Automatic annotation (TrEMBL):
Lineage top rank: taxon: Eukaryota
SUPFAM superfamilies: CorA soluble domain-like
GO MF: magnesium ion transmembrane transporter activity
Transmembrane segments: 394-416, 428-452
Pfam families attached to this UniProt entry: CorA
Annotated InterPro entries: Alr1-like, CorA_cytoplasmic_dom, MgTranspt_CorA/ZnTranspt_ZntB
Cellular compartments per GO CC: membrane
The keyword Nuclease is assigned to this record: no
UniProt keyword list: Membrane, Transmembrane, Transmembrane helix
Organism expressing this protein natively: Trypanosoma congolense (strain IL3000)
Identification of the protein by name: Uncharacterized protein
Length: 466
């Protein structure tokens, strides 16, 4: 009969060895050991969780959390340094549900994959049977940027060398689902949003790969960086593990909840992006004929096109992961054999497809905005050509008025006699000057009126006043 023992060291001896967990399989009752005495206690089997997280340890080590359920009791253990990590690994390895070596995964036959009625009925019956009873399981979650910690955790469990290499690799960005039937686990790699810092009091968000190594009753998740919404997701998962919804198939249910949470974070980016696309589409017809406005709009359209492509590619990757989880071969393994889990994946896939369709429509709207901008620029060129033609007509009219005016003063420069050459006084001069000036101003009035009447082009569509 298994029992749980706690070794307690006073805090004066070592703050890193305050609590140590281990199991013993030889004594029928729990025993509590201290450095000074040994005493038997008539108590039932209990699991104790302690918060062992230090601020300095988190910065250098990362965060490691253990969620387990044994004999109907669910507990959470947080680890903050390497010594406590060894204790947590030893605790997990003491569970009978945690694999110690490679075990063959129960995979369907070719007839079962093609969907024989007997196979489907047996699968549904086994799912209902698992759902009706409580299953022990354990979940180890590792968040660290240290390759040493990653290799230490992965080497403690029967994980294939290829999986270890890809998880520890910095280029682990491909979202995939791989089955290792000889090793007894399914590897799921999903991209999730991670907080990489703050710029101007706003959180800057990046992406990281979350690797989930799923055994039938044990789940190992590894990721680098702090996930967006990690605290809320962690609190939700702690409550979810203790709820009756995860009694029958805890590992598939937890994975489904994690994948749904990652997709939900990407959906938060979809609505603001589509709003920006609509705003740009409205701004196209309101741009001024200046080059600055046109360049600004071109830059906005280019940024939105790249953002749409990035988000759409992430949704395509999520769609591929969910579709692989719904393959007939995978649905007859422990991963998706539960009807409730398969139904949740179906709803998740429908939501992803709807989001992809909305992104496609947003991309079409952005393409129409680009075409409208090109048409607007062409219209601006036509307006400018019209302005040049209009100005040329005005100058032609001014030239027609100026040529006769220049002939009258030119008569006085000719070496000929004029009728009033012998006249005394300035009367003839003033008369000629007044007639010339009157003819000039009267002839220039209409071209000047046309020139001043012209209005420069404004926005293609006037801005609506509030």
């Amino acid at each position: 009969m298994a029992f749980f023992c706690v070794v307690y060291f006073p805090s004066a001896l070592s703050p890193l060895m305050s609590f140590f967990f281990f199991f013993c399989h030889c004594h029928p009752k729990p025993i509590v050991f201290t450095p000074y005495e040994s005493q038997e206690c008539d108590a039932r089997l209990q699991f104790v969780s302690h918060r062992m997280v230090g601020s300095a340890g988190i910065a250098a080590f990362g965060r490691v959390r253990v969620l387990f359920r044994h004999n109907g009791v669910s507990e959470v253990v947080e680890v903050g340094d390497a010594v406590q990590l060894d204790s947590a690994i030893a605790l997990l390895q003491s569970f009978p549900t945690v694999p110690k070596s490679y075990t063959a995964l129960c995979t369907p036959t070719l007839a079962e994959v093609h969907g024989e009625v007997t196979s489907v009925a047996s699968t549904v019956a086994s799912g209902v049977l698992r759902q009706s009873k409580t299953v022990d399981f354990a979940w180890l979650e590792v968040e660290t940027n240290s390759d040493v910690v990653l290799k230490k955790v992965l080497s403690a469990f029967p994980v294939h060398a290829k999986t270890v290499e890809l998880i520890c690799s910095g280029e682990n960005t491909t979202e995939l689902v791989e089955i290792f039937p000889t090793c007894g686990y399914i590897w799921i790699n999903v991209a999730a949003k991670v907080s990489v810092g703050k710029v101007e009091n706003q959180s800057e968000v990046g992406t990281t790969a979350v690797s989930m190594v799923a055994f039938e009753h044990f789940l190992l998740t590894v990721h680098r960086g702090s996930l967006v919404g990690y605290e809320d997701m962690g609190a939700y998962m702690e409550l979810f593990v203790k709820s009756p919804a995860s009694l029958g198939c805890p590992v598939p249910t937890v994975i489904c909840s994690l994948v749904s949470g990652f997709v939900k974070e990407y959906r938060k980016e979809l609505l603001p992006l589509l709003v920006d696309v609509d705003n740009v589409n409205e701004m196209v017809l309101e741009i001024q004929p200046s080059q600055c406005d046109q360049l600004d709009l071109l830059r906005r359209i280019d940024d939105l096109r790249h953002a749409l492509s990035r988000v759409q590619a992430s949704y395509f990757a999520k769609e591929r992961v969910v579709q692989r989880l719904l393959l007939p071969f995978v649905r007859r393994t422990f991963m998706t054999s539960e009807p409730g889990v398969a139904a949740r994946y179906q709803r998740l896939l429908s939501g992803i497809l709807l989001s992809i369709e909305r992104l496609r429509k947003g991309r079409d709207v952005l393409n129409m905005s680009s075409m409208s901008l090109v048409s607007g620029v062409s219209m601006r060129l036509l307006q400018h050509c019209y302005w040049m033609d209009y100005l040329n007509n005005v100058l032609t009219m001014m030239t027609l008025v100026s040529m006769p005016v220049c002939i009258i003063p030119g008569l006085f420069t000719m070496n000929v006699r004029v009728p009033f050459e012998g006249s005394e006084g300035h009367g003839p001069f003033y008369a000629v000057a007044i007639v010339t000036a009157a003819f000039f101003f009267f002839g220039m009035s209409y071209p000047a009126y046309l020139y001043l009447k012209f209005k420069s082009p404004d926005a293609l569509v006037p801005v609506s006043q509030p």
